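W.,

You were right to be curious about this one. When I first looked at the sequence I had no strong expectations either way, so I just let the prediction run and decided to look at it fresh. Below is the sequence, 293 residues in total, followed by the output.
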Amino acid sequence: MRLGYIGLGNMGGALARRLLREHPLRVFDLRPEAVARLAEARAIPAQSAEALARESDLVMTCLPTSREVRELLFGEGRVADALESGAILADMTTGDPAETREMAARLLAKGVRMVDAPVSGGPHGANAGTIAIMVGAPEEVYARLRPIFATISPNVFHTGAVGTGHVMKLVNNVVGAGVRAVTFEALAMGIKNGLSLETLTEVLQKGSAKSAITELALPRLSKGDFAVSFTLALMLKDVRLATKLGSDSASPMPLAGLVRELYQTATNKQGAEKDVLELVRLFEEAAGVAIAR
């Protein structure tokens, strides 16, 4: 199976590098420097997304939102026209399940299968090969894709029909967003009442409140490391999608709604392209304490 990858950002680039360990891979990104970095790892540069699609049996995408995926497929990119009948498009974007299902139906009409395969674990997980891959696909398509995705990580999960991978990712991200918010809120209270960030981190890591936030975010706060790995804008997008899905399916999400407004406030105050860790500034300001170094 000829493989192609479109979207070589922090996450897509890391996933593509994992695939390159065992598979020839064509790559494309709107940024030539991103393509050049993968070419140094023996990827095959494509001149355009359309050219990549014509030369691939499986095209994987990792883009900011479903809007960019739709534009790639049916807008100026016209990748849908270049895909041959029998090809598969696997969208690894954190996308909108309804949008994904609609695009999948349009592609199926011309004999192309679209599946959703978002990931969770961040660029560090992608580079380490520990990332979770959530695949919404028919059983027979999943069976074909699983060995390829296993090149990226052994943690590959079949979530059900097309669209369910994106539902699972929204569940994951809204939980993560909420845990981050309540952790930062509690840190502010603890520090204001005599605890240090070092003590908080050490104890939380050994107690029942241990999470990916205590494991990964708190050490970064202690170093004052706000380098961008995942932006406030992207997290706000994910929480918005989750609460929209809740509303559309009559599933109340009052707590997630509050989390959404916290991320909206942080985005307005800190800037959309700042790292998601900047959320901590809201709680520092509210409590009148310094959490991060």
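Here's what jumped out at me. The chain is about 55% helix and 10% strand. And, maybe more interesting for your project: Strands lie at 3-6, 25-28, 44-45, 58-61, 88-91, 113-116, 119-120, 132-136, 156-160.

Coffee later to discuss?

I.
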